[in-house]
Amino acid sequence: MFGLMDQFLKNDPITLQNDILRHVEYTVARSRFSFDDFEAYQALAHSVRDRLIERWHDTQVHFKRKDPKRIYFLSLEYLMGRFLSNSVINLGIRDQYADALSQLGFEFEVLAEQEGDAALGNGGLARLSACQIDSLATLDYPALGYGLRYQYGLYRQVILDGYQHEQPYYWLNFGNPWEIERIHVTYPVKFYGTVEEEDFNGGKRQVWVPKETVEAVAYDNPIPGYGTRNTITLRLWAAKPSDQNDMESYNTGDYIDAVVNRRTAETISSILYPDDRSHQGKELRLKQQYFFVSASLQDIIRRFKDAHSNFDDFPEKVALQLNDTHPSLAIVEVMRVLIDEEHLSWSRAWDIVCKIFSFTTHTVLPEGLEKIPVDLLESLLPRHLQIIYDINFNFIEKLKKRIGLDYDRLSRMSIVEEGAAKSIRMANLSIVCSHTVNGVSKIHAELLKTRVFKDFYELWPHKFHYKTNGVTQRRWIVVSNPSLCALISKWLGTEAWIRNLDLLAGLQEYATNADLHQEWKMVRKVNKMRLAEYIETMSGVKVSVDAMFDVQIKRIHEYKRQFLNILGIIHRYDCIKNMEKNDRRNVVPRVCIIGGKAAPGYEIAKKIIKLCHAVAEKINNDPDVDDLLKLVFIPDYNVSVAELVIPGADLSQHISTAGHEASGTGSMKFLMNGCLLLATADGSTIEIIEEIGADNMFLFGAKVNEVPVLREKGPALKVPLQFARVVRMVRNGYFGFEDYFKSLCDSVEVGNDFYLLGSDFESYLEAQAAADMAFVDQEKWTQMSILSMAGSGRFSSDRTIEEYAEKTWGIEPCRCPF
Ligand SMILES: CCc1ccc([C@H](C)CC(=O)N[C@@H]2O[C@H](CO)[C@@H](O)[C@H](O)[C@H]2O)cc1
Fold this sequence. Notes:
Elements: H1 13-26, H2 37-66, E1 70-74, E2 78-81, H3 84-90, H4 94-103, H5 108-112, E3 118-120, H6 124-138, E4 143-148, E5 152-160, E6 163-170, E7 180-191, E8 194-200, E9 203-209, E10 212-224, E11 231-241, H7 243-251, H8 255-267, H9 283-307, H10 314-317, E12 318-323, H11 329-341, H12 346-356, E13 357-360, E14 371-373, H13 374-380, H14 382-403, H15 407-413, E15 416-417, E16 423-425, H16 426-433, E17 436-439, H17 442-452, H18 454-459, E18 464-466, H19 473-479, H20 482-492, H21 514-539, E19 548-553, H22 562-577, E20 590-595, H23 603-620, E21 629-634, H24 639-645, E22 651-654, H25 666-671, E23 676-679, H26 685-692, E24 698-699, H27 707-713, H28 721-731, H29 738-746, H30 757-776, H31 778-790, H32 797-809
Parallel strand pairs: 1-4, 1-12, 4-11, 12-13, 13-17, 17-18, 19-20, 19-22, 20-21, 22-23, 23-24
Antiparallel strand pairs: 2-3, 5-6, 7-10, 8-9, 10-11, 14-16, 15-16
Helix pairs in contact: 1-2, 1-4, 3-19, 6-32, 7-8, 9-11, 11-12, 11-14, 13-14, 20-21, 22-23, 22-28, 23-29, 28-29
The structure holds ligand 26W.
């Protein structure tokens, strides 16, 4: 549909076949008469890459000619998943490729499975970056994403005996056809050393004398938009040894040392930190942050100076988005470069900094806020520490004028946290230096204003906003659910919804239409059968597609309450066991599906994974229960697994303790695939209720403002008997491993139950019972499913990005004219 516009490479099946075979022979270097699926995938990928590169060049040439204001998205994490299917769909040539391949005797889907996930991130924040860069491209914004090219992505989760084991995931084994190494785009990045004072223009100035240099090399990933020729860049930096260091050690003839030093350089960008909780203040982590910030800013300033000579124009041409505090050193680096290298005055540099940065926080928990130990910064980046002290000094001086000598508040707001382990509060630095600070949902922003950043909100209310997260319908419907995609386009009579998700509302009028119901149920059945097949392959458990598929897939965290889900399943099992035989025919069969990785050092989370397996072992092998209840843990949950599970889910759970999930984006993916939500009113779920209505969801639990009150009650809090009973079953070894699960049980004992599993248990069971009731009436359920999808328009990342572009970044689309 769009391919026709390509002036260059043709996309008719014959041309595609020839291109693929040419790459088999000349790129993969295999004979065109014998090559396997993986080699066919590599050749296919390279032929798609050629078409991406064409559009990419046109886009970059157009951006260069137009010289628009650009947005630079700085994120240490991107969970891109697979590139192939998304690329051919956004290029509009998936069908042509499927035809070409079938004539060569290959099936597109089979080859697509050959690709490993680009898992360069942990969870929500990382996948959000990927969805947002797809929307930036599709909406023709002049944007570029910067990040790190980890060689080891998020670890592979291997389950042995029900326990999580982490296996390093080296994803670049067979090269990566989706990236282009930019050998000419390299920058030196400095570390350590001292700061000397020297005379300058009759005054003094600070000069950083670094001790170590590594080279940053750019690897570019073309990101195609959907329904446009625009193809933007995700530029990931890799660390390489710099020749600058060696001379010295060579002179001392210490060759081995020289080579070893070379190796250490590469480690900077090699491993993703697999923890999405607290920051351990590790030196390598700080090195990663500064390495990517320094390389990105050298690249941004080089591009600006190619077309401009006056830095006063910088804020007119450059907007920088900080994806949480991980890239916040960029603020200090811009100050250093403008003052130390471009010789601007402090006030001019400061003026520019405050105009170019905007900051998004993804955390609700104060302990999740990043703090960098001063001594670490002092040794690694001495000049930056000086600049942070100067920024803080000026800030505190101004603050005193505004709020007087309220020392408690002054010390709460200080960027420098005094005390034994002096540290830098990166969130405070980001707020002081950014023109806009946003939460990722309406309620999140309220919590930032009233709790997390209360002091700053009272000082600068104008800075605080919310930009509710979104997800891209290209990957989460068109790529992962092609049969639903076709159904929507048929009933809406257009594919325009793929670029404008609000059009899904057009299906509301058909919510009770029998023909749509018929087709809808068929699509869902096909997806459930695909998921059932995967479950059997991965866990050996046979599940019935007539059962309700109840899914909870996300990182394992106490606040996300996977433990509550498991205790609910134990209760359901216990009820079935104690039921009269003939009452069992009223039980709605359930297949409970849980998936997610625990941070390697997060013991409680790992115990939850083990308990899930222990409970599954019991239930799945109990003939008494048979198909009425099954529990499966899906190992190694990642983007590609999500693409398979979400289309097959009937019910999905988002059951965090209210006030703990900043937004949540999984819920949005399930919603736009017609899966019903069982949820607490937390994060973005509150806005989903506004869009589709509470009567199309199963809601339960304490509200955000009730949680602190309930916590106050502590030991006086009433917990239902059923809750005490199921916890006791675990504690007494009903599922074995009682010693191992003791701390888990202790964590929900009365007076200790910080995440309120006990006090929410009753309403949780009621919501589950309501879901059972609804599922019995499949026409009712199908109506709710259609209305859920029809009301999901707002949760497209296109809407999110348009809000950032208009209200925060001040950028305009710059569409490639071809
Ligand atoms: C290593 C330190 C670290 C700490 C926090 C994080 C992320 C901020 C955690 C995260 O992914 N937060 C999630 O961000 C999503 C996107 O905005 C939200 O939808 C989730 O609610 C939030 O938990 C990554 C790494």
